[in-house]
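Bench notes, bay 3.
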Amino acid sequence: MVKTIVVAFEDPHLAEIKRIRKTVFTGEQHIDEVIDFDGQDQGALHSLAACEGRFVGTARMLSDGHIGRLAVLAEYRGRGLGAQLVSALVSEAERAGLRRVYLGSQAHAVGFYERLGFSVCGEPYTEASIRHVQMERTL
């Protein structure tokens, strides 16, 4: 069973969010921690997915509806956790009265976000040496 919660970037969840993101972004994708931990986490909402008694995925949303930092540990991918993490943040955006949410999708994940109702709305760009494209979803 998977449980998804929305939390602030503080104890007791701070260490879990950092662990997941460091594993995926720093360890797997070789993204510098300075880029990942960009100083915007404190004011963001974070979703966390727990499976088999441990936290295995996370994402964040800034106050303007910018969703990012979606990370699921490799052994838990393909189980729908990413969709649950994003959906939890979209629900929070709707509750907050936001009119849209948006994100920078890594090029390989565009189809994933399209299935969640996002549409490409910009030209491709490179961030942290990874090809991205801007996407948005009207609420």
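Next record in the batch:
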Amino acid sequence: MPDVVLDASAILADMYDEPGGGVARAARRTAATSAVNYCEVLTDLIEMGSTPGDAADIVDRIGYELMEADQSRAAEAAALHVETRRRGVSLGDRFCLALARELRVPVLTADRRWKDLDLGVEVRLIR
């Protein structure tokens, strides 16, 4: 069972060795991420010039647990829209937060706006 959920910003900070990346890196083996956030990371790598196959290989080697974006998680992410719509929380963000809430574990992110959210999820900023 994962003990933390990583959002795309935390994974990218780890991959690009950005500030806070070490925090995300230290959590790799016990972390999970949503398939939606996985897609965000793949998209970033593809935009930076990787082929889709190479991007998937890079991300898969990181070693966190990939969690499905199933019907229940989609419904929870949609429900979070009501609580977050005026805060600029994206669909990927809501999947991440929904997964952390479901698993009852903290979420690691670089997104400072999350710290003010009161959603029953512990938000840990990586920088």
